[in-house]
Write a structure and sequence with these properties.
The chain contains 23 helices and 16 strands. Helix 20 links the parallel strand 15 and strand 16. By secondary structure, it is of the alpha/beta class. The chain has an eight-stranded mixed β-sheet with strand order 1-8-7-3-4-5-6-2. Magnesium ion binds next to helix 18.
Length: 570
């Protein structure tokens, strides 16, 4: 009898294959006395070299498959192995105390891990995790223990693991790894985001897959509905093979739309853009036929490092995106740090409510050196494409005016320095705080565009933390309160002849799309892999019909009724 485990659908598609259990074995370390310390040091150096060789391969793989920011994790691991403070301390310990390399490495790395872990600083704590990861790799070589590395897989499997670390994910070979399921994680966890960009079907957060599944068991991973089927019957296999074929056929249909414009059944054009986090993501944007970048989250440039990026580094990243997009619109958002996105090296005090705290534009307006450096980089890059600048977390008109003022000051300085800066940069804001949505008629007179950030707008309107499982039932994109706010923003913008986009997750949601079309949204910005399905859906919808239905929908009482109505009428 088959058994079905439910989890979170993290990456679409169906995978059918045998289970490969990815484990991290415990390493048993014994302390021994050695006579020939010279030989022992050599044995240690050889293990370090092997670990370096592995990391080099993983890093290059990550660079090709996942981009520079993910590859940087492994560059950091390599640096640990080149750090004389650690490596020389191990060698000295072997020589002075006549102990074996395993115990010397274990003790010295343990000392560093403890030291970093005790610091009240997230960045340093991450360094502890790096050292732990790297020292395990070296110890495995010393002990001759084989990790079940995803890189060693040479037949078709689905991976089962408690969680996948970035180094595991970077080693996945798409030819053999058909899918994966994990015990922990959510839709926005690291492994989930990576699986979507690699287009590997995945189910995460099942809580029990590692407990219930043993190696070699036949499995179906249903990344469309978030299910793992253990030991499927012939009937189930048949059913899911059909579902797999249907999904493949659907993807092939979508792929035909890659060079098409997005046109509704009644001839209306809607712009479909994609969200990115790094310049490497532009490849996916173009492959999926997006018409622009609707949101470039620049904070990733600032994360995973120990100091602020320089103006030159930022300029190169922004220019790369603009050049690759070849004149298509690119909306770059200024630094939106805070909430769940921390920058430990800024050493900001801990807050009771980080989502309501000192973040994003609030921080930029106070620490203006950080803001001005970014604006200069953006302005210089503007000469290389179609740049639009967007400020995050705007709550008042005073904030918008101040931010714009700083931008204009930097522009004037650059012009005086004879640096070329585009004269057509639109300046817009994220509408993600209810006060700004309510006052959008006033904002619309001063901004060039709005982009509605529903990820935050929903959490602030419903007072339901977007990261908290226990209140997730209140996180309701289809609540008429949210829909009315969106309508208010779109109407206000259109009255002043301004355009409105949406760059929150809701923009790519098949239930929301007909409503947003009816409300008159001009630009939908979503993850790149959602662009073609959205284009296909929009081509079958009529804008005039959607407009009619929207009146009914906005008069509903509860989110559930909205969903039912959309399912029955579109
Ligand atoms: C949003 O809040 O909707 C948004 C797009 O920004 P982020 O998810 O980066 O907060
Ligand atoms: Mg936001």
């Amino acid at each position: 009898m088959s058994e079905i485990i439910s989890g979170i659908a993290a990456s679409a598609g169906i995978a059918i294959a045998k289970a490969f259990i990815l484990e991290n074995p415990e390493l048993a370390i014994e302390k021994k006395t050695v006579e020939n310390t010279g030989l022992e040091v050599e044995r240690f150096s050889a293990a370090v070299e092997k670990a370096k060789g592995e990391l080099q391969v993983i890093k290059e793989n990550a660079l090709k498959e996942l981009g520079e920011d993910k590859a940087a994790i492994f560059a950091a691991h390599l640096l640990v192995l080149e750090d004389p403070e650690l490596i020389d301390a191990v060698k000295t310990k072997i020589q002075n105390e006549n102990v074996n390399a395993e115990s010397a490495m274990d003790e010295i790395s343990g000392m560093f891990i403890n030291m970093f872990e005790q610091m009240d600083n997230e960045y340093m704590k991450e360094r502890a995790a790096d050292i732990r990861d790297v020292s395990k790799r070296v110890l495995a070589h010393l002990l001759g223990v084989q990790f079940s590395s995803p890189a060693s897989i040479s037949e078709e499997v689905v991976i089962i693991a408690e969680d996948l670390t970035p180094s595991d994910t970077a080693q996945l070979n798409r030819k053999f790894v058909l899918g994966f399921a994990t015990d922990i994680g959510g839709r926005t966890s690291h492994s989930a985001i990576m699986s979507r960009s690699m287009e590997i079907p995945a189910v995460v957060g099942t809580k029990t897959v590692t407990e219930k599944i043993s190696s070699g068991t036949m499995l179906i991973i249903d990344g469309l509905d978030g299910k793992v089927i253990i030991d499927p019957s012939n009937e189930e296999l048949g059913m899911y093979k059909k579902k797999q074929e249907d999904y493949k056929a659907q993807k092939a249909e979508w792929a035909k739309l890659v060079n098409e414009k997005t046109t509704t059944a009644d001839g209306h054009h809607a712009e479909l853009a994609a969200n990115i986090g790094t310049p490497q993501d532009v490849k996916g944007v173009l492959e999926n036929g997006a018409e622009g970048v609707g949101l470039y989250r620049t904070e990733f440039l600032y994360m995973g490092r120990d100091q602020l990026p320089t103006e030159e580094e930022q300029f190169k990243a922004y220019r790369e995106v603009l050049e690759k997009m070849e004149g298509k619109p690119v909306v770059i958002r200024t630094l939106d740090i805070g909430g769940d996105k921390e920058l430990p090296y800024l050493d900001l005090p801990k807050e009771m409510n980080p989502f309501l705290g000192f973040r994003a534009i609030r921080l930029c307006l106070e620490q203006q050196d950080i803001f001005r450096t970014q604006l200069r980089a953006l302005l210089r890059a503007s000469a290389y494409g179609n740049l639009k600048i967007m400020f995050p977390m705007i709550a008042t008109l005073v904030e918008f005016r101040s931010a714009k003022q700083v931008l204009l000051e930097e522009k004037e300085k650059l012009v005086n320095e004879n640096v070329s800066v585009s004269d057509n940069i639109e300046i817009g804001i994220m509408v993600e705080i209810p006060s700004t949505a309510v006052l959008s008629d006033r904002f619309a007179k001063e901004v060039d565009f709005f982009s509605i950030g529903t990820n935050d707008l929903i959490q602030y309107t419903m007072a339901a933390d977007r990261m908290n499982e226990r209140v997730s039932y209140l996180y309701q994109p289809y609540n008429p309160a949210i829909l009315r706010l969106i309508q208010m923003v779109i109407k206000a913008a259109h009255k002043e002849g301004k355009w409105v986009g949406m760059c929150g997750e809701m923009a790519g949601d098949p239930i929301a799309i007909p409503i947003l079309l009816g409300l008159g949204l001009d630009e939908f910005s979503m993850s790149a892999t959602s662009v073609l399905p959205a284009r296909s859906q929009l081509s079958k919808l009529s804008k005039t019909e959607a407009e009619k239905h929207v009146e009914t929908i906005l008069n509903m009482d509860i989110a559930e009724d909205v969903v039912k109505f959309v399912n029955e009428n579109f």
